[in-house]
Amino acid sequence: MSNTTPPDPDYDVVVVGAGFAGLYALHSLRRRGLSVRLFEAGDGVGGTWFWNRYPGARCDVDSADYSYSFDDDLQQEWVWTERYPTQPEILRYLEHVTDRFGLREDITFGTRVVSAHFDEADGLWTIGTAANAAVTARWTIMATGALSAARLPDTAGLQSFGGRILHTAQWPTGGVDLRGRRVGVIGTGSSGVQAIPLIAQQADRLTVFQRTPGFVIPARNRPLRTDELAAIKADYPARRRLQRESHGGWILPPPVGAALETAPEVRTKEYESRWAAGGLAFQTTFGDVMTNLAANETAAEFVRSKIRETVSDPATAEALCPTGYPFGAKRVCIGTDYYETYNRDNVGLVDLRSDPIREIVPEGVRTESGVHELDALVFATGFDALTGALGAVDIRGRGGVTLRESWHDGPRTYLGVAVAGFPNLFVITGPGSPSVLSNVVVSIEQHVEWVVDYLDHMRANGARFAEATTQAQDAWTEHLTTVADGSLYLRADSWYLGANVPGKPRIFMPYLGGVGNFRALCTQIAADGYRGFTTSADLA
């Protein structure tokens, strides 16, 4: 660094993304007296909940827990109406938060960030937008979300299709009228599982194209009673503490024992109880399900038995039964009337394992067996998870090295929050953190609070730069692999590994050690003077 006085930035901090993470970062930074500008590509707040407006879109975490905990008045005044909140309700909540804390004045909507370049000469980040505007900042916080970069498969003939093409993650704001239409849905992950039953109620004919069947647990969604919500609010201090200390950031009943040490009839009874309760509780029925393949098979076979029991046509039921990978190794979906939908006369299933797609034609989808004529084609094909939104921005650190180059062989971070070679750049719930394996709002609050505390530490000590060391990053990456190696997650081609994106390196991206452990580790790192970071007044 030169001895000349560095230039003042336009803002202390630029935040990218106005979802749960970006909004909380903006609020927290402003409370510290920092100047902040948040850029959001959409025309409103919400992040993934702004874009994912497809029929049936809702969260699979209990609404009272999928919410901010930083302000007690906020959590006491907001009234959740259902066990699992819908997309419109979550969006209304985030709009309320935005207006309650006066955040709009520091948000620039309809502005996509396309570049973020670090200038070693003046020690500032230059943030560029699609409108060819640019601002400078001391720190940049990428709050772009782990599940926000929609992925459209490169299917032959797609542009020739004569009907309407839709993607669940880019659903039109005004909705889509599919009444009387012949509709195809490609993809049966979480978005597909939620959308398919409601599209079936509208469409004249629905054809579902399924590549890999998933495990779908019934949601058992219902309205929240007034007294029930009041009891939750009265218990919020203890409830939030349990969330922060838990493995996944949610409150679930503990395992009742080990599946392989439980008598078969008792084991089935326990599975039946959790199935009847609905939601994520089924996954925690027994403590050995995600570490022992034989134990896992007891849960998998129970779900398959429920599919066969529910779906009337035996061939369709078998096609819907997941095999070849452990229960939970791919994201378990929470659905409402998903399997029941295949009993409708207007719904058909195409098993792409035996009848693969050859091309899209003007009339519809051509599989090996023939053409399925369609008026609309819905892609529920998910996201380029964890890295996609970051990779879409031209991020350049020291020496002009891009983040894409740095992550050519897979993402490497320190704690999922920082990347060696990119000073003063922070990522919220990035690869290498609990992120998508947690109640992400709990993880977001922890990440934002940790980053903001670090900025406080820097300012109190006259430091201008924070950068993860390569040694700390390498050690953390090795730790991630060690933790994942002890689980069954690596036995499936899942988006946790990037397997849904052709050419993407196969690395297990989230931290499997749990929210509580991660929080304790981050707290200790901060107590050790932000061990693993170089915190300095000048660039080395």
Summarize the biggest pleated sheet.
Answer: 8 strands, mixed
Shape: globular
Classify the secondary structure makeup into a structural class.
alpha/beta
What percent strand?
Answer: 15-25%
In angstroms, what separates the terminal alpha carbons? 8 Å
Outline the low-pLDDT stretches: none
Q: What features would you highlight for this structure?
A:
single chain; alpha/beta; 540 residues
Task: Give a written overview of the molecule.
It is a single chain. With 540 residues, this protein is of the alpha/beta class. It is 31% helix and 17% strand. It is built from 16 helices and 20 strands. The strands form five sheets. Strands 1, 2, 3, 4, 5, 6, 17 and 18 form an eight-stranded mixed sheet that branches. Helix 1 (20-31) links the parallel strand 1 and strand 2 (36-39). Helix 9 runs antiparallel to helix 10 (314-320) and helix 14 (440-460) packs parallel to helix 16 (515-527). The longest helix has 21 residues, at 440-460.
Per-chain topology:
Elements: E1 11-16, H1 20-31, E2 36-39, H2 48-51, H3 72-77, H4 87-100, E3 107-108, E4 113-119, E5 124-129, E6 134-142, E7 164-167, E8 182-186, H5 190-202, E9 205-210, E10 216-218, H6 226-234, H7 236-245, H8 264-277, H9 293-310, H10 314-320, E11 333-335, H11 338-341, E12 347-351, E13 357-361, E14 364-367, E15 370-373, E16 376-379, H12 388-391, E17 394-396, H13 403-406, E18 425-427, H14 440-460, E19 465-468, H15 470-485, H16 515-527, E20 533-536
Parallel strand pairs: 1-2, 1-6, 2-3, 4-17, 6-18, 7-16, 8-9, 8-16, 9-12, 10-11
Antiparallel strand pairs: 4-5, 5-6, 13-14, 14-15, 19-20
